[in-house]
Automatic annotation (TrEMBL):
This is Bestrophin homolog. The gene is Dper\GL25692. It comes from Drosophila persimilis. Belongs to the anion channel-forming bestrophin (TC 1.A.46) family. Calcium-sensitive chloride channel subfamily. GO terms for molecular function: chloride channel activity. It is a multi-pass membrane protein. It is found in: Cell membrane; Membrane. Pfam families: Bestrophin.
Length: 514
């Protein structure tokens, strides 16, 4: 199964958490590279000993020329580019194959909610549909995974596991004889779809939309199983794999010769820089490049037996257990329906935190602290900041302009307001409202709440706050009027059911007045 280390690197520290991972063996690069590294180092030592002890002067001169040639031209191979591009393709393919593996949970939930009834007939339908779904997956896994093939080499082992019956085995074998060249993983899905249609005819499924939804999920599951077979049939092009392999091994064939220590100076007149007694950098270069290639070899088929391959046997056990649990044990079962703890508060003001949890504030917009001033003097100057005073003042200005337009019949307003010039906050703050003008009632301007303007002057800050408070009270009262409860007795046991009802006429009238 894939080696996981997420718990060891959940939080970054001063000393890197990755250093602890270097001492692991299972799934490590040491386990993949050590044999190739041993062979490479043995060849290097053999050539070094032969050059220093076994070669004649003439042979040493020829060998030094070969070393010089390999050292000068060995880096012409674009190994980093070839390996990087190849490993990127393999890694993307590796994760795509994992996301293609289908899970039967959604089908189990649909079947449990759609096929009604607690009788043996309905229960058998639900369990059989999910058994066929899991059987389809097992047949596909036996065709792509050696581990699953070892567990289920024939249909007899699948029968022993309870996923297949004798009569179903006979049907599949007869189909294999009639059509021997095609996989039969889709047959259980066809059987499951037939059971869904039978359940609809027997009125176990109440509507056709549920039938269509279940059939669509079955087709989606079969499609994912087919994609797994496509990944098994169609590999990364062989020519690319050959190019990467030849480039890597050819590069190190040149390196095992070109990185040898010699007694002569190079073309520039400086002594040879290769270590005389141990090739440190050469060993590191081999370790990294060969490890890169081994990563691709390990991940190119994630259904094999490597340490980082997917554990399909565990998935088979899990899927069958969870499927039966959903469609049988948990069928139409749920906890008692009660009021939540925030029932009377409509919504929680703040959720609790544990002592060791870190309380964080809401995310901040990227322009929240941006100060911008327009350079055009003819335009109005805007100031963007987090100062709540400036924001509230802008809102008050808009509200006051609305109030002044609304109460334009007052005498003091006619005296102080001039449409030809722009009103400022100082001008508006000096305005007062007097008694309404005399005249017939139908000529007077209608006011919604005349009690607010009875005084000789109006405090606009207080008026704004009062309107905000009334709005909050009105919203809360509307929520309270919309809610109501009554007790209903269920055959499976009594519990309280919350029923939403429409708002009262009084609440609706108050909202229209506002």
């Amino acid at each position: 199964m894939t080696v996981t280390y997420t718990a060891n690197v959940n939080t970054s520290k001063v000393i890197s958490n990755f250093l602890k991972l270097l001492f692991r063996w299972r799934g490590s690069i040491y386990k993949l590279v050590w044999i190739d590294l041993f062979i490479f180092f043995s060849l290097y030592c053999l050539l070094a000993i032969s050059y220093r002890m076994l070669m004649s002067a003439k042979a040493q001169e020829v060998f030094e020329g070969i070393v010089y040639y390999c050292n000068m031209h060995g880096n012409l191979l674009p190994l980093s580019f070839v390996l990087g591009f190849y490993v990127s393709i393999v890694m993307g393919r590796w994760w795509q194959q994992y996301t293609t593996i289908p899970w039967p949970d959604s089908i189990a939930i649909l079947v449990s909610s759609s096929i009604q009834g607690f009788d043996d007939r309905a229960r058998a339908m639900r369990r059989t549909i999910l058994r066929y779904v899991c059987l389809c997956q097992v047949i596909v896994f036996t065709m792509i995974s050696p581990n699953v093939k070892k567990r289920f080499p024939t249909y007899n082992q699948i029968i022993d596991s309870g996923l297949l019956l004798e009569n179903e085995k006979a049907i599949i074998e007869n189909m294999d004889i009639a059509f021997p060249h095609y996989p039969k993983h889709w047959m259980p899905i066809v059987w499951a779809a037939s059971i869904v249609m039978r359940a609809r005819k027997e009125n176990k499924i109440r509507d056709d939309y549920a039938v269509k939804t279940i059939i669509d999920e079955l087709n989606k599951f079969r499609g994912f199983c087919g994609f797994l077979l496509y990944y098994d049939w169609v590999s990364v092009p062989l020519v690319y794999t050959q190019v990467v392999t030849l480039a890597t091994y050819t590069f190190f064939l040149f390196s095992v010769i070109g990185q040898q220590w010699t007694q002569v100076a190079d073309a520039g007149g400086s002594p040879n820089r290769v270590e005389q007694w141990f090739p440190f950098l050469t060993i590191l270069q081999f370790f990294f490049y060969m490890g890169w290639l081994k990563v691709a070899e390990s991940l190119i088929n994630p259904f094999g037996e490597d340490d980082d391959d997917f554990e399909l046997n565990w998935m088979i056990d899990r899927n069958l257990t969870v499927s039966y649990l959903i469609v049988d044990e948990m069928h139409q079962e749920h906890p008692e329906l009660v009021k939540d703890q925030y029932w009377d508060e409509v919504f929680p003001n703040e959720l609790p935190y544990a002592d060791d949890a870190k309380r964080t504030g809401p995310p901040e917009a990227s322009t929240a602290k941006l100060d911008y001033r327009a350079t055009n003097s003819e335009q109005r100057r805007f100031h963007m900041s987090r100062d709540s005073t400036a924001t509230n003042r802008s809102g008050r200005d808009n509200f006051l302009n609305y109030m002044l337009d609304k109460h334009s019949s007052s005498a003091s307003f006619a005296e102080n307001y001039h449409p030809s010039r722009r009103s400022t906050w100082e001008d508006i703050s000096r305005l007062t409202f007097t008694e309404p003008l005399d005249g017939p009632e139908e000529d007077r301007p209608r006011r919604r709440r005349p009690s607010r303007l009875d005084s000789a002057s109006v405090d606009f800050d207080e008026l704004i706050e009062q309107r905000h408070q009334e709005r909050r009270d009105r919203m809360r009262q509307r929520f309270l009027n919309m809610r109501g409860t009554h007790i209903r007795t269920s055959p499976s046991g009594g519990y309280t059911v919350a029923v939403l009802r429409t708002a009262s006429d009084e609440a609706l009238g108050e909202e229209e007045d506002a």
